[in-house]
Amino acid sequence: MADPRGFLTTRVRELPADRAVDVRILDWDEVHRHPVGDDAYLDVLHRQAGRCMDCGVPFCHHACPLGNLMPEWNDLTWRGQWQDAADRLHLTNNFPEITGRLCPAPCESACVLGINEPPVTIRNVELSIAEEAFGRGLVVPEVPGRMTECTVAVVGSGPAGLAAAQQLTRAGHHVTVFERASAPGGLLRFGIPEYKLPAAVVERRLDVMRAEGTVFRCGVDVGRDVTGDELRRRFDAVLVTTGSTVPRDLPVPGRELRGVLPAMDYLVPANHAAVGAPLAGAPVATGLDVVVVGGGDTGADCVGTAVRQGARSIVQLEILAEPPHERPAAQPWPTYPAVFRVSSSHEEGGERRFGVSTLALTDGGSGAVGGLRVVDVERVGERFEPVAGTERELPAQLVVLALGFTGPERAGLGDQLGLTTDARGAFERCDDFSTATPGVFVAGDCGRGQSLVVWAIAEGRAAAAAVDAHLTGRTELPSPVTASTVALRV
């Protein structure tokens, strides 16, 4: 353990201050700061890592799909042993600089200290180790000592595909990652706003993977430019990690109006513009009344993006009632509770409205959306019932649908590889991520359904072990989960 009295002497949970709201909304730079080697920052980190207890049973470890060894790298951080801390962190997580920015930290909800005190700042310690490691030159390519003659195609370069590709490359296989976008990273690069996950952070890790030997082929739409049959002929194994990309729609009158679009049709062009590569005809919120339908993280990303684009007004709607501000009795420790959370985007502007359902989208003229007709609702069993007398209209010239995703795109690659879907619309696979088509495996959100980045990485690592065993008859790669592992509902 770290400081044996740290959890008693340091009772306050400290996190580094974000950039000021009135400054950060003027650019696309990262909201959070991670100064490498800064004495004041390291002092706070030292104290917070020292709060980690000798709790006997580390529920933080259990709550993490990757099985991260939090008590061990908390101790090493407290001691200032950055190389050892980085090694222990990377032992279970290929991309801690990404999970440290994006993961909702179920580990912190399960922290034993959190039973009666604010939990250890686990996610910030994780991110700080990763940034210190990069800043100090401690992250170096792990080039395999020997190469096999086996070839693997990974289709999709999101977190699952990247994790699998890195593991398989380090096992000595010849790995090619196919990505239909112009650069690798999937939604990590283009779907997460630049102020939350800079493209440079993703590219920094990709450079390590390239140096290890992973090959990336971008601008290749597998299923159209290259068929599934061609992949099977050219590669010894094919791993499909295309994500859950079909957006859930809003089936109400007026859905066809101009100015109503899925979240990714708004965020992806915005991210291109943020890195200096604007797309022609991209939707922009400047001077408009914006309504975001959907109260999750993607909806919050749309809010922060609209703020930076200079929207006139922003409203985010959520059909569920406002969650409690404290852990509800029905969701005791160590579960991940449904509580009221405020993201950095919510700090910057906009209005959040809970318990609201959209009835219709109204025409503002010339076939463009002009507003939403909404009503307050109450949950009765499994249904949402309207509250009498609450129907009203909200002005909106841009409506962004952030309602989640229903599954992967089946046409093309899925059909060519003979992949079938389950009742949820995800590709079916066995516990070892294999499918009914020999040599074809499925991992990540396209097989799991929409989930967390940490689950995608865990599945990518586990699928890599399964592919390695398929190719060589055995594997020494870690396998943190199976395909049927029950997801922690976050």
3D structure, described in words:
This protein is an alpha/beta fold. The protein has helices at residues 6-9, 21-24, 39-49, 59-63, 70-78, 82-90, 96-102, 106-109, 122-135, 159-170, 187-190, 199-212, 228-234, 263-274, 297-309, 344-348, 413-416, 445-448, 453-472, and strands spanning 151-155, 174-179, 215-218, 237-240, 246-247, 260-262, 289-293, 313-318, 351-354, 356-365, 368-380, 383-386, 392-395, 398-401, 405-407, 440-442. The chain has three domains: 6-135, Alpha-helical ferredoxin (Fumarate Reductase Iron-sulfur Protein, Chain B, domain 2, Orthogonal Bundle); 151-245 and 406-472, FAD/NAD(P)-binding domain (3-Layer(bba) Sandwich), CATH 3.50.50.60; 249-403, FAD/NAD(P)-binding domain (3-Layer(bba) Sandwich), CATH 3.50.50.60. The longest helix is centred in the C-terminal third of the chain and has 20 residues, at 453-472. The mean pLDDT is 95.
Notable traits:
490 residues; alpha/beta; Fumarate Reductase Iron-sulfur Protein, Chain B, domain 2; 3 domains; 5-stranded parallel sheet; 16 strands; 33% helix; 16% strand; globular
